[in-house]
Amino acid sequence: DERPLADIEQTDFLLVFGWNFLSAIKWIHLGAIFTRARQNNPNFRFVYVDPVFNTTASKANQWIAPRPGTDGALALALCKLLIDNGTYDTTFVSSYTFGFAEFETYLGGDGTYDAIPKTAAWASGVTGVPAATITQLAADLGSAYTLGRKICIDAWSGPGHHTNATQ
After folding, report:
1. Torsion sign, CA atoms 41, 36, 7, 87
2. How far apart, in Å, are the Cα atoms of 80 and each of 102, 120, 137?
3. What's CA 146's distance to the chain center, in Å?
4. For residue 143, how far is the Cα from the chain centroid?
5. Beta bridge partners of 45
6. What is the pLDDT of residues 148-165, one digit of tens each?
7. Which of 41, 58, 45, 57 minimizes the C-alpha distance to 14?
8. Taking Cα atoms as reference points, which of 83, 79, 66, 81 lies closest to residue 125?
């Protein structure tokens, strides 16, 4: 009955979409957890995606501001880049997911589901975020994965709350 919280304190790379958690009264305890994560982990990196520069954005290593309601396009382009670069856990995917091949086909835009490839250039046109920023974020995530860093991506409050979130 409650949203599970990410283990921010044990995360090396935190990517949060659209949740101003450092100003949320209900989650007031997260400020101290976030501060400990940043102070105690030399590998800690925080990227925040939100159209609004707010308290949480002010504490990010990188703030990315897409047009409102376009977080999903950014997330799709990141997925495509990570898959194309092979920087994802193939064992996990083959063991615990269903429909990955179809998702990969959708991202490629072969016409089966959608004719538009979900490239960084496409996402840039939708989101207003430069394609180079999207590509670099994917490279940073891929590098963190390759180095065995602990990655947390919280997308519930951005893409997860959009009317097309099931995509």
Report:
1. negative
2. 12, 9, 12
3. 17
4. 14
5. 13
6. 999 999 876 666 656 665
7. 45
8. 66
**DSSP element (H, E) containing 103:** helix 100-108
Per-residue pLDDT tens listing for the chain (167 residues): 466 778 899 999 999 998 898 998 777 888 999 999 999 999 999 999 999 999 999 999 999 999 998 999 999 999 999 999 999 999 999 999 999 999 999 999 988 778 899 999 999 999 999 999 999 999 999 999 999 999 999 876 666 656 665 55
Angle CA(18)–CA(20)–CA(25) in degrees, nearest 5? 140
Q: What's the chain's length in residues?
A: 167
3-state SS assignment for residue 167: coil
